[in-house]
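Working notes for the structural subgroup meeting. M.R. asked for a predicted model of this chain before we commit to crystallization trials. I am recording the input and output together here so anyone reviewing the notebook later can reproduce the run.

Input as submitted:
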Amino acid sequence: MSATTSRRSYVPINVLTSAAGLAVLGGCLLAIDSRVREQVAGIAAGHGATGDLAGSATHLHHTIDFAARNLRDLCLANAPLGFLGVGAIVLVLFMLRT
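Returned structure, recorded in token form:
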């Protein structure tokens, strides 16, 4: 069996393991918190999300947007150093390969 074939066979296992972990985490949240059970029951019944869940999603969206803007600004400020770092990593990898 070649390395490519064995690497491909592990990908579905990794995906399934991650999905199972998320399912267990969601199941634990459902078992512990009654608010989560109410939200999931409402969504499953077709009522949609409540204002609390929608407000949390909006807050999460604003937080991610803020972090992305700050990361972009940080990347633009340190772009020359980043290019040098990537170049150094590529050179080290070529040196280790030979």
